[in-house]
Amino acid sequence: MATTAGAFLAGGIAACGAVTATHPFETVKIRMQLQGELQDKGHQPHHYKGPVHGVSVIVRNEGVRGIYRGLGCAYIYQVLLNGCRLGFYEPMRSRLTGLVFNDGGATQSLGVNMFCGAASGCMGAAMGSPFFLAKTRLQSYSPFLPVGTQHQYKNAWDGLRQIFRAEGVRGLYRGVGAAMIRTGFGSSVQLPTYFFAKRRLVKHLGAEEGPMLHLASSTASGFVVCVVMHPPDTIMSRLYNQDGNLYKGVFDCLAKTIRTEGLFAIYKGFLPHLARILPHTIITLSLAEQTNKWIRGLENRVLPPTWLPQAETESLK
Hints:
- Belongs to the mitochondrial carrier (TC 2.A.29) family.
- The protein is mainly α.
- It has one domain (4-306): Mitochondrial carrier fold.
- It contains ten helices and no strands.
- The chain has helices at 4-34, 51-67, 71-101, 110-140, 156-172, 176-205, 211-241, 250-261, 270-302, 310-316.
- It is globular and about 60 Å long.
- The model is unreliable at 311-317 (pLDDT under 50).
């Protein structure tokens, strides 16, 4: 394992590679979550009908630039979120397991793993919330087929500046509670599911360490994450995109959405989310394995042995 700083960097690099490939589906997902917001079922527009249709509609009307709105913010957010989630998860898990079981962190406890996954994810979500806020508003904007509240920002920094000028720091952290719930749900199952699937594939199918094992484990993890995370993700998108006049908070948004649009409204945009989260999880976790090895090798060459994790130090002897 790399140092905590190294793991943070490796996780951030891996996530940026993933978001480059999956950002178009994220744009479609957000617009589908916002279309028909607080409108009765019979009066809701259906500009975007699914992942492929949504991408084609946006590209046709707004070009490739339209489908990649908010990409800069997405990079910063992913570095902060996945840097924390992938960088702090293992150190937290090892230390907490050592405290609970007094075994130096060797035991694999599902409860401890889920807690550490959720905690590390919540840390990243809180750190990156202002950037996700700006990203959501940039992605929801369309001069051709608008959905939800429209915000005309020139770019990410202009958006952050306008939000801060109008609402202060509180405005920049609008919806952070929903973001932490959403990411906590996803993170509590992402890494535990990934490592659970990985161990089972090795134990029962004799799978060997390598890209195919990482791919299969990431696929299982990505599907579970999407199912668990989508309802709070929908609530978060709506809280982020509003000006503060529609919802008072997470539970108010949830209640109004279900009461006006029906229970399944919280699963609007599920297919684009699945189309994004599966390749995103696969690429992130698969790349994280490789970037961790690269960072670990770099650290072994440039850092003094006393700075390396104990396992690394032992392997160098």
